[in-house]
Amino acid sequence: MSATTVRVDLAGRPYDIVIGRGLLAELGLRIAALRPGANTVIVTDENVAARHLDTAKASLAGAGITSSEIIIAPGEKSKSIDVFASVCDQILATRIGRNDLVIALGGGVVGDLAGFAAAAVRRGLDYVQVPTTLLAQVDSSVGGKTGINSQYGKNLIGAFHQPILVLADTAVLDTLPEREFQAGYAEVAKYGLIDDAKFFNWLEANWRHVFDGGPEREEAVAICCRAKAAIVARDEKETGDRALLNLGHTFGHALEAGAGFSSRLLHGEAVAIGMVQAFDYSVEQGLANGQDAERVRRHLKSVGLRTRPSEIEGDMPDVDELMALIAQDKKVQRGKLTFILTRGIGESFIAKDVDPAKVHAFLSQQG
Ligand SMILES: NC(=O)c1ccc[n+]([C@@H]2O[C@H](COP(=O)([O-])OP(=O)(O)OC[C@H]3O[C@@H](n4cnc5c(N)ncnc54)[C@H](O)[C@@H]3O)[C@@H](O)[C@H]2O)c1
Ligand SMILES: O=C(O)C(=O)C[C@@H](O)[C@H](O)[C@H](O)COP(=O)(O)O
Ligand SMILES: [Zn+2]
């Protein structure tokens, strides 16, 4: 089976991201090569279990690896302290130990939750990411940010804990609902908008093939993983330019929390709106030109994503409440806001000490 391997070159703890169609069938052999004799516990959700758990288990059994499974309810609400506690207990009940492995088989919710449980149980178990959504393959399975949500906001409780392997089988994306694919695509486009205008041009021309499952899908996943691997290797804990990966997230996370972490607004959908807001705000501050902002909006709209907060159905918090959520952002330093702003497509930068009054005014006049 042909596969692309991207190395995450962390000093002392490097790991591979392996990308290709049909790789789930190789899970057992690849784990056996990495951790001979390990027992495993698979954390997954109901939707993924119904479609891909049998393949994963058969592959592990074929390589002589024992596995048990923990199946959570699908959706963002599972990134909660209650589900976290339950997953930790269930892992402990299997008696797996520090030489064994947790396997996160699912999207970003499973990956963030299982990764955090792996970080916490017995003060740290190794784990493998087997991402099954576009979003997880291009973003959440890589880089070791794990965690859950709080009533105060998104991802506010968690740990940096790197996986020992990421196995991205792009064929499993064939069973992903269209809306989830679109949401994940926002994070794909993000890499172009951060610092790769050439990739954004390529996406404008090729996005349909990424959705259709042609070779462009693997190419896009590999380009995103290479970009993320490079940033993570130089700034694992986000003391510097890893924050660029947060483009669209300060606005987006507030909207996601404002929508109650519900299916009204998926993470990727919130990021799409948040990236357009970051462009619009940059234009308003005289940093970027309106044509670039319009081009971003047009592209995200053409793949079926919403691009304005007013397109979110149902009640949303007012601007003061959104600002209170933004004040909880992890990039805040001693009360000062940090945003990822832009000078144009592929020219994002970290803006520290952004004036909350200006952001408040911007949000107040948003349609
Ligand atoms: N840790 C990070 O660096 C990072 C990066 C980006 C996003 N995230 C987090 O990821 C989460 C979003 O992840 P997501 O978009 O993957 O959502 P998700 O995990 O909720 O998965 C989306 C939906 O698709 C279903 N599903 C998953 N794989 C499937 C498949 N192959 N076939 C059919 N259905 C499938 C799931 O059951 C779920 O209903 C958010 O919580 C976000 O904060 C984390
Ligand atoms: O890996 C990162 O770094 C990112 O910021 C990737 C984001 O897409 C992701 O949503 C991440 O979970 C957001 O991180 P947070 O620190 O703002 O919670
Ligand atoms: Zn994200």
From TrEMBL:
Signal peptide: none
Presence of the UniProt keyword Signal in the record: no
Documented EC number(s): 4.2.3.4
Catalyzed chemical reaction(s): 7-phospho-2-dehydro-3-deoxy-D-arabino-heptonate = 3-dehydroquinate + phosphate
Cofactor: NAD(+); Zn(2+); Co(2+)
GO biological process terms held by the UniProt record: amino acid biosynthetic process; aromatic amino acid family biosynthetic process; chorismate biosynthetic process
Cofactor details (free text): Binds 1 divalent metal cation per subunit. Can use either Co(2+) or Zn(2+).
Residue span, 3-dehydroquinate synthase N-terminal domain: 70-182
A Gene Ontology molecular function term of the record: 3-dehydroquinate synthase activity
Chain positions recorded as Zn(2+) binding sites: 187, 249, 267
Domain 3-dehydroquinate synthase C-terminal: 184-332
UniProt entry keywords in alphabetical sequence: Amino-acid biosynthesis, Aromatic amino acid biosynthesis, Cobalt, Cytoplasm, Lyase, Metal-binding, NAD, Nucleotide-binding, Zinc
The family this protein is said to belong to: Belongs to the sugar phosphate cyclases superfamily. Dehydroquinate synthase family.
PANTHER family in UniProt: 3-DEHYDROQUINATE SYNTHASE, 3-DEHYDROQUINATE SYNTHASE, CHLOROPLASTIC
UniProt-recorded name of the protein: 3-dehydroquinate synthase
Taxonomic lineage: Bacteria, Pseudomonadati, Pseudomonadota, Alphaproteobacteria, Hyphomicrobiales
Name of the gene: aroB
